[in-house]
């Protein structure tokens, strides 16, 4: 690896809270810079699967999650430094509010040295925006700030009031731009996240429109370069999956996949074969299967009709081959899923049980999982959970996740022969030997 320090213009897009428009603004900036002929790399803070899809379509480049707890400081710094070596501009979208969570978006922005753009929805607000911006700056003075982007500006007079409030802040805060209300292109949401990018038919038109409006603002000019230093060295992962082919479900129903997880499997020597249950693909010839999470409850009729895929999964499990299922993937293995509207679909029946989608969130947050599988004793798999369904599963209890911030019970992990299933979404790099053991790899 070169010892040169990698530098690149960069901005960290954050806000006082969710709902201020971070993803829309980040995607619009990515599309704006891309339209200028620049190579844009975008990152998403936290364990998010949906925002990266929108950001990837906006930038035309893969979007990687940066999570200090799941991946660690060195992994985050390495990903950004490597991207800086090949990109013309970097954008990082924060998660929730700037200081929310442990670790927070502010922790990541400070680690990387990227100046923060505070996106503030100014609807119903005048000079008070100055107090809000001043509080964001004063809460952690060592954090670098680029300024405020006001969202939802009603009129030129409203913009004048916002500028006055920001000038009165101590220190004064620049208003980078104000987006008028008719310039807002709010992206549709589902539950606590966005609708998946492929489901938004006019997404490109929305992004092009708001990017065009932003082309006349100060943000059309690239920010100052940030020196990201020399990338930390990559960890040396044993090739415990050498010679193994892992079939991975990937389509609109099963799309919750960390890019880093796919890379880790390949670094351990695995070959990946993708298939689509929605398309009723036959299961590829493989040694193991990974069914990631997603929204199977939105496609009950299609998945019920996917008899080729279903029979392939049943045969795979009956043959005693490893099958690892996360959240929506676990639901697909059950006998049936009942949607929130009462509709139902017959699923694979690999695991006895039924899932029912609830009107309220049933699980959210970080959890640690210790499975003590052969060759992986002592490893702790770092995971995240987010689901609206409740499942009754008639399979053997294997383990339970441990919540990071409270003592309430974590998610159950079920095991039946070589089938392992849970609501947990795992970050594979945190416990590579455990992942290898789940997928039938060599026991080191």
Q: What does this entry look like structurally?
A:
Its EC number is 6.3.5.11, 6.3.5.9. With 444 residues, the chain is of the alpha/beta class. It has two domains: 221 residues, Rossmann fold (3-Layer(aba) Sandwich); 194 residues, Rossmann fold (3-Layer(aba) Sandwich), CATH 3.40.50.880. It contains twelve helices and 24 strands. The strands form four sheets. Strands 12-11-13-14-23-22-21-18-19-24 form a ten-stranded mixed sheet, sandwiched between helices. Helix 1 packs parallel to helix 2, helix 1 crosses helix 7 and helix 5 packs across helix 6. The mean pLDDT is 92.
Spatially, the strands of the biggest sheet line up as 12-11-13-14-23-22-21-18-19-24
Strand segment count: 24
Instruction: Please tally the helical runs, counting DSSP H or I stretches of 4 or more residues.
Output: 12
Instruction: Give the low-confidence spans.
Output: none
User: What is the CATH first-level class name of the largest domain?
Assistant: Alpha Beta
Gap between N and C termini? 28 Å
Q: Could you say what the CATH architecture of the largest domain is?
A: 3-Layer(aba) Sandwich
The radius of gyration is 23 Å
CATH superfamily of the largest domain: P-loop containing nucleotide triphosphate hydrolases
User: Percent range for helical residues?
Assistant: 25-40%
Q: Mean of the pLDDT scores?
A: 92
What is the overall silhouette? globular
Class per helix and strand makeup: alpha/beta
Classify the fold: give the CATH topology of the largest domain: Rossmann fold
Provide the domain count. 2
Q: What's the main sheet like?
A: 10 strands, mixed
